[in-house]
Automatic annotation (TrEMBL):
Active site residues per record: K10, D136
Name of the gene this protein is made from: ispE
UniProt family annotation: Belongs to the GHMP kinase family. IspE subfamily.
Domain GHMP kinase N-terminal: 66-144
The protein, known as: 4-diphosphocytidyl-2-C-methyl-D-erythritol kinase
Length: 289
């Protein structure tokens, strides 16, 4: 049997860090939403009792370091599954970009194996398991739009953003999430208004959403990689309505309300960055069911 799952990327419309915890993680309050930029994960039964990763992207590990491998191993061990699976990952989401590509592949693997192995688990069960793999995996199990708290694994679905376009530009550098959190100085951060953003989404207020976008990790990554600031500047100059770095970066995204404005922003950025995408928001609930 064969199961195909879509693994969409996320962006953070708002990302606040409250404190550092005893376990080394940081307590966050952030708003994540799914966009129409997705990897494809194909799961196929194989006769040897093993997990095989197939990916033609040289930046993606094909062994136990792959988050999709870890997702399959977790289900196999937890539910004593004596079956093999081949996991083919077709990457579209840039790697180490702040877009949760690996986390979304892991989440898609959890959803897909739940079907392939007929485990009968709910999305809540899968999200709980996903938290054992990484902080962003729980959100990626559900997709949609959510307020994420704890270390990012506590998910509350909220209203989706209005229909608009998202332009993404990923500079050639990769960023380590652990390094960015380590270099964050909580004494000096400007906290974004996360609750204001929840309200703006509820009221479907596009201009308010644009004005409230904020990410406390942005300054840290900008200090480490000044070229990210340049991309932000260019994206504003070419006409995006609001511009922010996603997650720990380095990808910068810009919101564009009118399709007529899109070519100017997209083509303008292509002069600065190899990896530029123009996609739709995909923040509605239950898109992955
Ligand atoms: C930046 C975000 O992508 C925003 O959505 C997430 O907070 C990071 O999620 P992630 O990549 O799934 O992170 P994990 O794989 O769980 O953790 C990677 C590293 O980031 C740091 N980390 C991550 C999440 C968190 N709430 N606090 C942290 O300090 C830890 O040093 C951890 O070892
Ligand atoms: N399925 C996968 N796809 C991409 N990278 C993976 C995968 N599994 C493991 N990795 C490893 O994880 C690292 C981070 O990649 P990923 O694309 O998930 O980062 P990210 O988008 O910054 O994640 P996040 O936004 O959750 O912090 C990569 O350098 C790669 O070695």
């Amino acid at each position: 049997m064969r199961v195909l799952e879509k693994a969409p990327a996320k962006i953070n419309l708002s990302l606040d860090v409250l404190r550092k915890r005893q376990d080394g993680f940081h307590e966050v309050r952030m708003i994540m939403t799914t966009i129409d930029l997705a990897d494809r994960v194909e799961l196929v039964d194989i006769s040897p009792n093993e997990i095989r990763i197939v990916s033609h992207n040289r930046f993606v590990p094909d062994d136990q370091r792959n988050l999709a491998y870890q997702a399959a191993k977790l289900l196999k061990d937890r539910f004593n599954i004596e079956r093999g699976v081949s996991i083919s990952i077709t990457k579209t989401i840039p790697v180490a970009a702040g877009l949760a590509g690996g986390s979304s592949d892991a989440a898609a693997t959890l959803r897909g194996l739940n079907k392939l192995w007929k485990l009968g688990l709910t999305l809540d069960d899968l999200a709980k398991l996903g938290a054992e793999i990484g902080s962003d995996v729980s959100f990626c199990v559900y997709g949609g739009t959510a307020l994420a708290t704890g270390r990012g694994e506590m998910i509350q679905q909220i209203d989706p953003p209005p229909h608009c376009w998202v332009v993404l530009a990923k500079p050639t550098i990769g960023v380590s999430t652990a390094d960015v959190y380590r270099n964050l100085n909580l004494q000096t951060v400007q906290h974004p208004d996360v609750d204001g953003m929840v309200n703006a989404l509820h009221n479907n207020h596009y201009e308010k959403i644009c004005s409230l976008m904020g990410n406390v990790l942005e300054d840290v990554t900008l200090r480490m990689h000044p070229e990210v600031a340049n991309i932000k500047e260019q994206m504003k100059r070419f006409g995006a309505d609001a511009v922010l770095m996603s997650g720990s970066g380095p990808t910068v995204f810009g919101l564009v309300q009118y399709e007529s404005r899109l070519p100017r922003v997209y083509n303008g950025l292509r002069g600065f960055c190899d990896q530029v995408f123009a996609v739709r928001m995909l923040g509605e609930r239950n898109i992955l069911d």
